[in-house]
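Morning run. Coffee first, then this:
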Amino acid sequence: MTTLGVVVNGLKNLDAVLPAARALAVKHVGYGVKAEHYVPVGEALISTLDRGLGPDFTDEVRGAWVAAYGALSGVMIAAADEKRDAA
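And here it is:
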């Protein structure tokens, strides 16, 4: 939840949160997280936001979240792959 809070607060400057996302991805490798796990997590996040925000979860808001999660998960998957390749 703390990381999600950092991401939300950094959405206006995504480059500022990318180093933290990369570091988190490297930790996730140790937990057994794989690239294919990011899709269902993203779907769960969007579904949770949809239910939690209700009518405030507009198409524009949804699009912004999908784009932000896509960017972050892409960076995280790449960082995790680099960690695995280095091992």
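Residues 59-86 form the longest helix (28 residues). Good start to the day.
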